[in-house]
Design brief:
Elements (H helix, E strand, L loop, with lengths): L6 E6 L4 H13 L3 E7 L5 H13 L4 E5 L5 H16 L6 E6 L18 H16 L1 H5 L9 E6 L11 H4 L15 H29 L4 E7 L2 E2 L4 H4 L3 H12 L1 H7 L4 E2 L2 H11 L5 H4 L3 E4 L2 E4 H4 L6 H16 L6 H28 L4 H4 L11 H4 L18 H4 L2 E8 L6 H10 L7 E7 L6 H13 L11 E5 L10 H4 L5 H19 L4 E7 L3 E3 L4 H6 L5 E9 L7 E3 L9 H8 L35 E2 L7 E5 H5 L14 H11 L4 E11 L5 H34 L3 H40 L3 H26 L1
Parallel strand pairs: 1-2, 1-4, 2-3, 4-5, 5-6, 6-9, 7-8, 11-12, 11-14, 12-13, 16-20
Antiparallel strand pairs: 9-10, 14-19, 15-20, 16-17, 16-19, 18-20
Helix pairs in contact: 1-2, 1-11, 3-4, 4-7, 7-14, 19-20, 28-29
Pfam family, one: Anp1
Keywords: Golgi apparatus, Membrane, Signal-anchor, Transmembrane, Transmembrane helix
Protein name: Anp1-domain-containing protein
């Protein structure tokens, strides 16, 4: 599963002090860019050193091509060859050209074969010719203002001492001194600065012409790296006074940087700035500006090179530079055809001769046939096929600050029926803060019945093609190998005591297969990580690496439901040895395997998990004899020394516990962090599931009972009203009835008193009135009785 390359970056002067550092910086920052390094001598030790440094970074697409900037024919051939490779899609389109090659001289030089001062041709005319010849390769890329091609020219402070007319007035045609005559340091500085000034001005003029023509989006920058420490070919041939001044400046570097950060630096400092500027995303507004960089400080190019504001003079300069190499023409086509015909005839003659020799002398077949190969048609410089590689393992020992030193980590993860865990695992991968380009992933899929392999492939493809350039990882290896594991993946089967010995021996085989197939000479660390880790710090690699131990593990717990206590130690395989366990081991058979955390083997060992304090120091260390396999960080030299995961009984243990004892036996440090905790996924057992079902049933019954009680209360409230409230209503009704009767009685007694005189006068007629009152009184008693009954 390959990741497509984003573009081709051409770096001239790759064997120089700055060019080599720029190549390494781009290889670190842009893992998916094809590096095309241009050097005059591709067999030099400097080129070999650059290639070895890039290989230590990780798998990168890099090649070295020979090109001599002091020869127009060499430059044109290289440019034509590159354009043809881009057209045939052999390499990605060219998106970056860094003109880092430079030449300086303190003597009067003989002119080149093209008739120019070698300093002027190498520093100015040849880079300009190379840029113009590569326009077709630039155009094949993304020619938009957001992502157009870039040309970065390396300038210098000596440009302020140069002039645009220097080589017209002091050129080799007018020189009266013989070649080899020393010149002053001031004159050499003016010569070098003038060549750089002419190159920068001509490049900016070319950009303006291309913008007006609208042919291609080409952005041109000039970068002044400042003074740099270290020996280079620019100072090797300098006079003694210049070398002494350079050494003095290098010795005063810390003091000079207080006043100016570009005063003097190591070559890696400007190289990182160049790598950053070369791939920064451009906006339409910034794209229209002409920029000049002094280290990482950005300026308007016209403020540093005032001649850029003189448009007529810039046009004249562009025409002048174009005329200087327009007279150069590659070899004529008839000459090439004649050479090709001669070459074909020679090849035919050689082929017939070899055939006759093979037929006549059969004994020569063994020696002649291997010679008939592509080596007869191509030179070593063209092919660059490496069959011998050299690795210095002393540089990959593993240190406490590996992320700063560019140390590579191999992350190994065995998988079996893990499709349900992969989304969580890949979310952890995306959040790791260790540089992803320094991490190589290795997966072993074994004895799986679900879609682990398919889901893994899809998620890896999505991860590697993420829009974030910092997200993709380095080399990724996916290995499929079945081991005949018969133990099921459920909790009861995996953690059952009866299956532990055989299961762990097979797991040890799987780990050894995965490690032996993926460990590279470039790896400094190996990190084992299970896929079912629930939570872990994003900085776990840096946190563990900072202790600088050979083998180190964190504490592993797991969350539990509240009815089980909320949390629990998970990994009991990290422990210190005890006298009880040693005595127990002496009583067991040779092939027996002690498994920790089971009642069948009471070892009474101090476990790392039980020493956890949530508020303890996470950097506190504890020496261990056995380790668990959930999360292990080990230096690669531990495995290179022969330590592995025993798939047999080693000191009555197997797999990771035996790995810890073997590492301890070989003198490596084995450390655990009791207060640095990661959390494993909780997987309920059969008993837990049964209890959870019972709790769910009880909850449903309790809810139904509460609902029935609420319904009964509502019905009672509806059918039976409140007695106190009804009594108040009846009492008020009775009182109203009594008050009404009293009013009627008062009215009746008032009428009788007015009729009494008449009864006295009439005599006998008064008696009926008395009887009527008596009758009225009886009626009142009956009415009172009714009212009392109503009250009751």
């Amino acid at each position: 599963m390959g990741t497509p390359l984003h573009g081709t970056a051409i770096i001239t002067g790759a064997s120089g002090l700055l060019g080599s550092e720029v190549a390494v910086s781009i290889a670190k920052a842009q893992p998916f860019v094809h590096l095309l390094l241009v050097a005059r001598d591709i067999r030099s030790d400097t080129v070999k050193d650059v290639l070895s440094r890039i290989r230590l970074i990780g798998p990168r697409s890099v090649e070295v091509v020979k090109c001599d900037l002091a020869c127009f024919n060499s430059v044109a051939s290289f440019a034509q060859y590159t354009v043809e490779r881009v057209r045939s899609k052999e390499i990605p389109p060219v998106t970056l050209l860094i003109n880092s090659a430079a030449s300086s001289s303190y003597v009067t030089d003989q002119v080149t074969r093209d008739g120019y001062d070698p300093v002027y041709q190498t520093n100015c005319i040849a880079p300009f010719l190379l840029t113009v010849s590569l326009l077709e390769a630039f155009r094949a890329g993304d020619g938009t203002p957001n992502g157009g091609a870039r040309v970065i020219n390396i300038g210098c402070a000596a440009m302020s001492k140069g002039s645009l007319d220097y080589f017209d007035e002091q050129g080799p045609d007018n020189a009266s001194q013989a070649p080899g005559t020393p010149i002053s340091a001031k004159e050499a500085t003016a010569r070098f600065g003038s060549s750089k000034l002419l190159m920068s001005a001509a490049m900016y003029a070319l950009r303006r012409s291309l913008v007006l023509a609208g042919n291609i989006s080409l952005n041109v920058y000039t970068m002044d790296p400042g003074f740099m420490t270290g020996e280079s070919h620019l100072t090797a041939s300098a006079p003694l006074s210049v070398r002494m001044a350079h050494q003095t400046r290098s010795g005063l570097r810390p003091l000079l940087r207080v006043f100016s950060k570009s005063a003097i630096n190591k070559a890696s400092v400007p190289a990182k700035v160049i790598a950053k500027v070369a791939f920064q995303r451009e906006t339409v507004e910034n794209w229209g500006r002409e920029r000049y960089y002094i280290l990482d400080s950005e300026y308007e190019a016209g403020s540093v090179i005032p001649v850029l504001r003189d448009l007529p003079r810039m046009d004249a300069l562009l025409q002048k530079v174009m005329r200087q190499f327009s007279s150069f023409q590659p070899r004529a086509q008839p000459a090439l055809r004649r050479r090709r015909q001669l070459f074909q005839r020679l090849c035919l003659l050689c082929g017939v001769s070899l055939l006759l020799l093979v037929l006549i002398f059969p004994s020569l077949r063994a020696s002649l046939l291997p010679v008939v190969s592509l080596g007869l048609l191509h030179t070593y410089e063209d092919l660059q096929i490496e069959t011998i590689r050299y690795y210095d393992l002393s540089k990959v020992q593993g240190t406490a600050s590996g992320w700063e030193r560019g140390e590579r980590v191999l992350m190994c993860t065995p998988l079996r029926d893990a499709s349900s865990h992969l989304p969580m695992f890949f979310s952890h991968l995306r959040n790791l803060t260790y540089p992803h380009n320094l991490i190589d992933l290795a997966f072993l899929v074994s004895d799986s019945e679900d879609d682990t392999m398919g889901m893994l492939s899809r998620m890896l493809d999505e991860l590697q093609h993420d829009a974030d350039p910092k997200m993709p990882y380095g080399e990724i290896s996916v290995i499929q190998k079945d081991f005949g594991q018969l133990v099921n993946q459920d909790v009861e089967s995996r953690h059952g005591f009866a299956a532990q010995a055989s299961r762990r021996k097979l797991m040890a085989q799987a780990r050894n297969w995965l490690l032996s197939a993926t460990l590279r000479p470039t790896h400094s660390w190996v990190y084992w990580r299970d896929a079912d880790v629930l939570t872990a710090p994003q900085t776990i690699l840096e946190d563990l690496m900072r202790h600088d131990k050979d083998v180190i593990v964190p504490n592993v717990w797991r969350p539990l439901p509240d009815w089980l206590g909320g949390e629990q130690p998970y990994d009991l395989n990290s422990w210190q040895e005890s006298e009880t366990a040693l005595a127990l081991a002496d009583t067991l058979d040779e092939d027996a395997v002690i498994v920790e955390g089971y009642a069948e083997y009471a070892t009474w060992r101090p476990h790392l998990a039980y020493l956890r304090d949530p508020y303890g120091d996470p950097d506190m260390e504890m020496e261990l004899d056995g380790v668990g396999g959930v999360s292990i960080l080990a230096k690669a030299r531990v495995f290179r020394s022969g330590v592995h995961f025993p798939a047999f009984s080693f000191e009555k243990h197997a797999e990771t516990e035996a790995f810890g004892k073997m590492a301890k036996r070989m003198g490596f440090s084995v450390i655990g962090l009791p207060h640095y905790t990661i959390w494993h996924l909780y997987e309920p057992s059969v008993d837990d599931l049964r209890h959870m079902e019972e709790m769910e049933q009880e909850r449903k019954e309790r809810e139904m009972e509460e609902k029935d009680q609420a319904d009964r209360a509502e019905r009672v409230q509806t059918l039976f009203k409140d007695a106190k409230t009804q009594w108040d209503i009846d009492h008020a009704f009775v009182e109203d009835a009594i008050a009404e009767d009293q009013k009627q009685e008062t009215a009746a007694s008032g009428g009788s008193s007015s009729e009494t005189p008449k009864g006295s006068e009439e005599g006998p007629l008064a008696q009926p009135a008395v009887k009527e009152r008596g009758g009225t009184g009886q009626s009142g008693e009956g009415s009172g009785t009714q009212m009392e009954e109503a009250k009751r």
